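Design a sequence for this backbone.
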């Protein structure tokens, strides 16, 4: 819990992997947890309840289909990092390697989130902020490992009238992918789309209107489920936090995003025709879409200020 609360302990990708391996070992130790609770409405989700040292808190829901078990934790360090050397070479039909990308990112981040869930209730807002910041940093580290320049920061958009720049407007973004001084992709990186979906769509709309450009705007989400507590003995389940009506409305009436990616994708995102067209698992970003975005012209007029660079 103390280690997860210190963002300075997560400066490199190896820091994330080492923490995940330690957490996975911890939860498998005999007597470490008070209980494991299975979700009542979607049984492949489970919750961990900590003992007194974790204030008897119950974690966020964890997808057992994606959460790597302790026995396989070395895959996070060996196979996953090997895949990241040249992910664009992974064939579309190689489901095992593509699934490992989703599993590794999901497990690494959820180990942090679940550890932070042990913090006392009066620090829950702090825990959410740390978890979100560390997920942004994780995605940046993964992209930079591929040799692609990226950062978080403020994009200053020049506003011109009759060809003359009048002033600049500033927009804060979680992810700015660049090639030299040319901005190639702008993205939002969030653990959940809850209360955050509107801004990402509006950011693209305003940027394109103000600059007369069509630079790709993407969204990367970890998952869209939260704990639901009902009545009775077996009272824990999950609720979906994704708003399909909002997503469809913005995509049709405002503008579609150029890519929306999930580690833990919801069933309706795979069955609904419109959602399926716009939302995919995160392996598609690393194995193909990122390289297509980089090949596009981008925007050389945008300037980056207050850039947050990784070591």
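Sequence:
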């Amino acid at each position: 819990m103390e280690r997860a609360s210190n963002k300075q302990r997560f400066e490199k990708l190896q820091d994330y992997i080492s923490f995940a391996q330690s957490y996975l070992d911890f939860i498998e130790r005999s007597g470490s947890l008070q209980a494991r609770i299975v979700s009542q409405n979607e049984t492949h989700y489970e919750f961990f309840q900590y003992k007194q040292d974790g204030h008897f808190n119950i974690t966020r829901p964890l997808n057992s289909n994606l959460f790597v078990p302790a026995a396989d934790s070395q895959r996070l360090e060996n196979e996953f990092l090997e895949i990241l050397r040249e992910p664009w070479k992974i064939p579309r039909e190689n489901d095992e390697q593509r699934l490992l990308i989703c599993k590794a990112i999901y497990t690494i981040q959820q180990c942090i989130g679940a550890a932070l869930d042990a913090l006392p209730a009066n620090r829950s807002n702090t825990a959410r902020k740390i978890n979100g910041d560390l997920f942004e940093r994780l995605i940046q580290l993964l992209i930079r490992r591929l040799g692609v320049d990226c950062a978080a920061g403020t994009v200053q958009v020049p506003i011109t009238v009759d060809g003359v720049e009048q002033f600049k407007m500033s927009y804060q973004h979680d992810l700015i992918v660049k090639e030299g001084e040319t901005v190639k992709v702008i993205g939002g990186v969030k653990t959940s789309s809850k209360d955050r979906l509107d801004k990402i769509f509006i950011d693209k709309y305003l940027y394109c209107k103000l600059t007369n450009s069509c630079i790709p705007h993407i969204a990367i989400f970890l998952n869209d489920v939260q704990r639901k507590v009902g009545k009775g003995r077996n009272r824990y389940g999950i609720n979906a936090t994704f708003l399909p009506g909002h997503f469809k409305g913005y995509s049709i009436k405002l503008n579609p995003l150029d890519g929306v990616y999930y580690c833990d994708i919801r069933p309706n995102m795979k069955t609904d025709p419109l959602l399926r067209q716009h939302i995919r698992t995160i392996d598609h970003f690393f194995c193909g879409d990122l390289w297509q975005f980089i090949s596009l012209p981008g925007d050389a007029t945008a300037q980056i200020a207050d850039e947050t660079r990784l070591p």
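The chain has ten helices and twelve strands.
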